Protein 1
Amino acid sequence: MSNFHSDALVFFGATGDLAYKKIFPALQGMLRRGRLEVPVIGVAKAGWDLEQFRARAHDSLEKHGGVDAAAFEKLSGLLRYVDGDYTDPATFQAIRKELTGAQHPAHYLAIPPVLFGTVVEQLAKSGSAQGARVIVEKPFGHDLASAQELNRILHASFPESGIFRIDHYLGKRPVNNVVVFRFANAFMEPFWNRNYIDSVQITMAEDFGVQGRGAFYDQTGTIRDVIQNHLFQILCNLGMEPPVRIDSETVRDEKVKVLKAIRPLEVTNLVRGQFKGYRQEKGVAPDSKMETFAALRVEIESWRWKGVPFYIRAGKNLPVTCTEVLARFRKPPSVVREDALSRNHLRFRISPEMTIAMGATVMAPGEALVGETVEMVASRHPRPEEMEAYERVLGDAMAGDTTLFARQDYVEEAWRIVDPVLKADTPLYEYEKGAWGPSEVDKIVSPAGGWQNPIATDQEDFRVATQVA
């Protein structure tokens, strides 16, 4: 962690959709918690002035989370605005003028990656990169080569310690709760390894389509959009060894080791799908071969996990919106009738609510030694006062805490794993909206015992449930 706090936030892409839906609410939340007391300089080419920018911020808060009158008044006083083209040196001279007195600004690039190089180069030429940090939005590259080129561009003006590659998923409390649950509970360690775990599956399902973002999605697809970043982060939290210290570099060292232990993905361990009607979406090519669903199988070839398959799937227009992890245990020898014996499991639900559940076998009704599965559940819904993901990651970046950000080696290792299949001409299978992807998944990439499909919260009927306050 760097030993200074950023004394200004320069916000490129300040009139965009991400700013409107996520960043203004995050800034208000940071201010309410005392995490934002420095100027916020919005930069965009919209032909606006400061009053229009403040009005946009107010409208954003009305639509997304609500306006706190006192907090907004303070936020409004911190807002500045520079209107101009990112290729024009005059724009960056205007930013420099607004930064008068700031020694350590944080430059947040909420802009398309194709513009990163232009903006970083202009920041360096104008002197605004000196002593500064840069916060970069995903996607970080399109493949391994483009990620390496982006790193080269950033490193020309910023040290690695000053580069914060955002994966807002790491700002989510339940994602980090997986790490706490693993390492803060003595009962977890004895069984969290290849001796007891038979397989692990990670599912990120969305019950909606591309929502008007067809042009973006048709250049990206499911593997690049959520698997290579979000779900690999969850995979690392599940697979990492206990860090010997809790400083950011030590924690990130352990995560990178997980990716280094994974071989490049083979085409035989991947199924890609596309929901029916995708090619009719606005912005999508009529002959598009981009996936809206992917399921894959990898192994972490470490001492702890050698031989345990990890299955990952994600997709659009699936039956529910939910992110969940399920670890199945090996079957024990038992006096209970074999055909009635199901595998024990540990289930982490990451969203929409945070759940930790243990699946156990108990005696079924009647006198015979026949088992049935029940779940013991600890569940917790998000609270209104909890910090949102963007509030956490932006606050941490300005404080210089790199723990929740992807390091250069991590990003490049993640791309190394998926690069071969991104370049290969793999089959694309169609699936109906509301299905769990194409039927080929069950034949090609499926855990022993099949996938366990998450169900909507209001459908759950647990035998034993403990609500955690």
Protein 2
Amino acid sequence: MARPLQSAAIGTRKAWINSAGIALAILAFINLFNYLDRYLVSALVESLKHSELALSDTQAGSLMSGFLIVFALIAPIFGTLGDRMSRPRLIAFGVACWSIATALSGLAWNFTSLFVARASVGVGEAAYVTIGPSLLSDYFPRGQRGRVMAIFFCAIPVGSALGYVVGGLMDVHFGWRMAFFVAGVPGLVLALLCLGLRDPPRGGQDEDEPAAGGGRTAAGGPGDQRLFMSYLELLRNKPYVLTIVGYVAYTFALGGLAFWMPAFLERMRGIPREQATVSFGTIVVITGFIGTFAGGWLGDYCAKYSQRAYLWISAIATLIAAPFAWVALTAPSQTVYLICMVVAQLMMFLSTGPINASIVNLVLPTQRASANALGVFTIHLLGDVPSPILIGMLSDASSLSQAVKIVPVAILIAAAVWAVGALAQPKGKAA
């Protein structure tokens, strides 16, 4: 059995936060602000259209796409660094970087300046999102990772909902610029907390586990492994690749839905702006909180019997979500919309914990930051980078009610690919 590889930062600094539980809480709270910032713009779309910036729907959608392009392109760099350097320090840098860029967004004087500021946020978030799950996987054993990832990624619905709510309320009462200022400041405090986190040995929680990815071992230690060889090895891991491909379609759907729903409710359903952002935010936070936690615990329970459980849960949940999403976006009844949107979002978020547990479990401990980085690069560049701007372009060409119909189709594709991925994964218990 190979000895676990040690973090490059061990012995160079003293951590003052040694509890894995406290570290999970800090990282989850950072993730909350990550998504609060990311979906803040969604609550401000209508104000940005009618402000001195006078954005079109295509320009509004490109704000999210520009951020995600930078995010996706920078992620592999931080993935490589995260497998070799101090993970807490890299995370602290990322959090500080995106917080400053968010605050600067409030100083924009035209579309170009706002686009540059929002794109710059992607540099900081690329560091955090790629490295955070890797760090958590070395705090907790394999059999607890579904629950751990559920707690960590529960920040997605909560943070996204707060982005709608905080953005909507600040916009109505103080203007869209103040929304960016308020969202940017807390991250600087959280960046300081990151510097106190312990960087545990890589693979220290996997000493008695079989090698991931069908029993292969990495070609050389992480210090010797060339960048392209590291990612080439991941691309040879078929279950991992299928997991990411399904995640692309899932992210396309979730990103498009999350960005355009407040504007959809205001334009197509006649709901006042503040009510539209708060009501959709409420749906996201409730369904996300329940669905993410339920999926994490269900995944860990089922994984006692089969390591395919995480992918099967994700496939079945998204298959159920697809028709409900279609009805929610097409039915004229407000009651039908509400019921179907709740079910669709609940089923979508049920996949969050299991699918991210699959990603870290399907690769070697020394590949996890790189695996997350490659996943981030792919799911965003092909998923929610094109979806907001594509929906915006379709909306400019026809109407927003027609444009959003692409979302349920993407959800169905995610379900199909994850089902194939589950069948491609070796049988046996996950832990």
